[in-house]
């Protein structure tokens, strides 16, 4: 996997959650979060409708859970219309992201409506495990932009292209059964 995060517009949405541009002083936890993601310490990342779950192996294992509101029916219908206009079999490249945005669909979860929890005892919000999960999810989106749509409530049949092989469960079997 690439060491770079947020190489597409889809991934950048989530990288921005970890690294908001409005922050004047860089979060000292960020380099550590990136390092956790880069060293594949974010395991069992699973993205389904409205929910992302992951296990982050830091000094011990921590369970991260992020919920994102799904689009209501009018928004879903709008998204389907935009996607139907895309070339059949085409990739979900940055221009599709732009087209959705222009139609008024926000792919990036609004911090106000998102909930994110981690079972660690850190009082920092977000903790380094949450940050690492954002970064890792950004990388997953760079590879599979469809996950951004599935997260918002679209089904596999709504998205053009490889509709039969959407990796909803991104469980990494090798690490899932590994020792802590
Ligand atoms: Zn944590």
Please give a structural write-up.
- The protein is of the alpha+beta class and 180 residues long.
- It has one domain.
- The chain has 7 helices and 4 strands.
- A hairpin with a 3-residue loop joins strand 2 and strand 3.
- Helix 1 runs antiparallel to helix 5.
- The longest helix is centred in the last third of the chain and has 16 residues.
- The C terminus is likely disordered.
- The chain binds zinc ion.
- Zinc ion binds next to loops.
The beta-strand count equals 4
Mean pLDDT: 84
- Please estimate the helix content: 25-40%
Q: What about the largest sheet?
A: 4 strands, antiparallel
Span between N and C termini? Answer: 22 Å
What is the oligomeric state here? single chain
Low-confidence stretches: 162-180
Strand content: 5-15%
Radius of gyration: 16 Å
Domains, number: 1
The strand order across the widest sheet is: 1-2-3-4
Bound molecules: zinc ion
Given the structure, what is the number of helices?
Answer: 7
SS-based class: alpha+beta
Summarize the helix and strand pattern as letters.
HHEEEHHEHHH
Question: How would you describe the shape?
Answer: elongated
């Amino acid at each position: 996997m690439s060491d770079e995060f947020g190489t597409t517009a889809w991934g950048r949405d989530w990288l921005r959650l970890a690294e908001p541009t409005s922050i004047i002083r860089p979060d000292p936890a960020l380099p550590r979060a990136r390092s956790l993601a880069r060293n594949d310490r974010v395991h069992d990342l699973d993205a389904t409708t409205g929910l992302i779950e992951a296990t982050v192996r830091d000094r011990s294992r921590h369970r991260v859970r992020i919920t994102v509101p799904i689009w209501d029916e009018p928004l879903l219908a709008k998204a389907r219309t935009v996607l139907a206009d895309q070339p059949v079999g085409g990739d979900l490249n940055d221009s599709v992201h732009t087209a959705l945005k222009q139609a008024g669909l926000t792919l990036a979860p609004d911090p106000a409506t998102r909930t994110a929890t981690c079972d660690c005892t850190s009082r920092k919000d977000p903790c380094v495990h949450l940050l690492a999960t954002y970064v890792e999810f950004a990388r997953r989106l760079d590879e599979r932009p469809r996950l951004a749509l599935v997260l918002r409530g679209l089904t596999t049949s709504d998205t053009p292209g490889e509709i039969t092989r959407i990796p909803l469960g991104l469980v990494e079997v090798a690490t899932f059964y590994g020792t802590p």
